[in-house]
Amino acid sequence: MAQVKMQTARTTLQEPAAAAEDLLRQLGPTPPVLVTMFASRERDQYALNRAVRERLPKGTRLVGATTAGELDNTGIHEGSVVMAALTGDLEVGLGLGTGLSVDAINAGQMAIKRACEELGVRQQDLDSRRCVGLVIDDGFRYKKEELLLGILEKNQTLVLVGGGASDHNRDPARQSALVHVDGEVATDAVLVALFRTNAPWAALRSHWYVPTGERLTITKVDDSHTRALEIDGRPAAKRYAEILGVDVPDLEFGTPQGFAVRPTALRVGREYFIRAAWRPNEDGSILFANLLEEGTELELMRLGDMAGMTRGFFTDELPRRVQNPQAALLFHCGGRMWYAHATNTVSQLAETLKAAPTAAGMNVHFEIYSGFHINTTLTTLVFGAN
Question: Which residues fall in a coiled-coil region (predicted)?
């Protein structure tokens, strides 16, 4: 039988060595293939990495990131460190690409090349039935689409899932993010963890929206391709506010009647990838987190039962897609948390994690799924047993 199993740990101890001791004590004596570490941003990441790396077996690999909140089966936490140890039928190759803000395509190329070299396989020869890539980037560089071009350049069949390293600080001038790859801690970087296994696995995504059949068209964008200047041939913010029946200031993502209630999605086959608008600007444009192209038609979505749809994902969809699910790495959109706080539904959302298989993860700054940059979504990499 091929299987991948997970053991999780969480600590609130602040001193790095004490935190590392507490975490590894909870994980137990079995040497893991890979350890993931999701740590609150205000901690000393360098000291924490050093303390954990010194205590792990030499053959165990380590990846991690700073968070805007940490997840496990007991809920959604702040100020802690959540760790997961993966064991079983699993090989892993790690790659770190640096200089995202200078050349994101090259950073993606660098990360996947190194990960493939560690697995002893050429990128173009990766078996997409047995291999899957986990991607964590410095989310505040806003380079997901470019780095994904680099990662997938030589093999477009490789499945990717993950999200952006984050920070609980809401002030853009003070936000920063770090990623961990073994003994390295880096900013302005992207990590790729390339898994090869005979166990069942799937990259999955869940959001709490339903399609409406209504569509809008991005008819004019700015030179950065991140701001919609016109929608349906009219000033963007005014047009979107008209569709929602609200005033332009009410559109801001996270407000009870704004973009989070009626986001846009890109339809790909039967899938709807949420690519929600973010913020209306004083000039009447709308800032999106993802790149925009003139002429793109997007579907308007409608908010569903947030907690109910998330719980249903864990209890119904996930077991249908992965045989005997044993382990789930979770990348939960910070925008979902933002809206949950605005609507006082955080406790209901956190309660759904009890229905997941053994899980560890973090609140991220935008998500990666199947080569797409998306938002307002929970993405997850799940392993099982056959």
Answer: none
Amino acid found at 112: I
Tokens of 143: 């380079």
Select from 326, 35, 54 the least CA-distant residue to 193: 35
Task: Decide if 292 contacts 178 (C-beta within 8 A).
Answer: no
Query: pLDDT by residue (tens digit) across 187-229?
Result: 999 999 999 999 999 999 999 999 999 999 999 999 999 999 9
**End-to-end CA gap in the chain:** 6
Q: How many DSSP H helices and E strands does the chain contain?
A: 9, 26
CB 116 within 8 A of CB 93: yes
Nearest of 276, 292, 297 to residue 377 by alpha carbon: 276
Res 39: pLDDT: 98
**Are 112 and 151 spatial neighbours (Cβ–Cβ below 8 Å)?**
yes
Nearest partner of 373 among 381, 364, 382, judged by Cα: 364
* Residue 256, pLDDT score: 84
User: Considering the entire predicted model, what is its pTM?
Assistant: 0.96
The one-letter code for the residue type at 353 is L
| Cα 317 to Cα 320, 321, 370, 381, distances in angstroms | 5, 6, 17, 13
Order the strands of the 159-165 sheet from edge to edge: 91-98, 189-196, 131-138, 159-165, 367-369, 372-374
Closest to 92 measured CA to CA, from 110, 59, 119: 119
Q: What share of the chain is helix, strand, coil (3-state, %, to 5)?
A: 25, 40, 35
Nearest to 55 by CA among 80, 37, 74, 75: 37
Report yes or no: 231 and 216 within 8 Å, Cβ to Cβ: yes
Going from N- to C-terminal start, the domains of the chain cover 4-205+308-383, 209-303
**CA–CA separation, 223 vs 214, rounded Å?**
27
Burial 226-261 (b: 16+ CB within 10 A, else e): bbbbbbeeebbbebbbeebebebebbebbbeebbbb
Which regions in the chain score pLDDT beneath 70?
none
Query: Is 141 within 8 Å of 104 (Cβ atoms)?
Result: yes
- For 133, the token pair is 């890539």
